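so my prof wants the structure for this chain in the tokens format not the other one, which i didnt know existed until like an hour ago. anyway here's the sequence
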Amino acid sequence: MKLQAQIESWLHQQWSKKGVFSLVMRPLSKLARYYIKYQSQQPRAQLPFTTPPIIVVGNIIVGGAGKTPVVLALCEYLKNQGWQPGIISRGYGVTIIGPARVGQGVLSAADFGDEPSLIAQQTGAPIAVHPQRVQALTALCQQHPEVNVVIADDGLQHQALPRDIEIIVQDQRGIGNGLVLPAGPLREPPSRLQHADWLITQLPALSPMPTTPAPATANRSVTMCLQATQMQQLYTGKRLTFSDWLAQYRQCSMTALAAIGQPQRFFSMLEQAGLQLEQCIAHADHRPIAASTFSQQTASILLITAKDAVKCTDISDPRIWVVHVAPQFTPSTWLVDLEQKLHELTLLG
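here's what i got, hopefully its the right format
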């Protein structure tokens, strides 16, 4: 797993520039662009029922841009405003043969995937997973007719999926070297950003905007920073505010572990929050962190992400603390604007 994480890190380094690797891969990227263009011309699925408004949250850059915090914040906001959101997702890392899986509340990451499990647990919203997003959408609407807005976690490139609002999330990498896979980190050309309703850029605290900015667009641009808000002891479920936890444990030896798309972003957030990390251990995205990996650590405190925590429910090491984060948006009014658009769509529908 560490080797895969190292390979992914090396690829992202290559994709940040137009070096020899990108030069060699450009012929393949040219073919990829033809395929992407062909896919983009495919029609949306025609469903035999009326769907609620559908919001797609996605990214064009590979490797974890910050979709999940946006989905969580969007779902929480809409619930607080009286909406009844439902979620659809691919269920990455899970083999689904047959009908879509639909669930609510505490769900197994082995059955639904780590991100859907986390979203379901934290929001309480019903969720449906299937590689074919239209099947997930159909199952969600059939089993939960009370849902009046659907949020698609990923699915931007799933052309068959109908959508009313598109939110594209990127991070401090911007568009990298501006090339599509495999010469660059993009799933679609940079021009795709011009068609999004909102472009959200996740930045580390105290960080400047991306050094490789997106093309000039008329998008509504938002920045997002994640901050640690709560700490939860995995073994007992005990929760503390981050400030209270810091006052109690600041002097302890700490190691951070993460199996997410951009683990260094997690480590940097902790360091910028004032934690002294003795070691940072990165694993490949979506991979479970083995119990033996935790037992081999000598630090008094082991820090993991909430996404990793849903895959570690059978581990009873009291040293493990889950770092819960919350996004801060600038401008914060973008959610108000989005809800207004939902009301307009509902009236038109």
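also thought this was worth mentioning. The mean pLDDT is 92.
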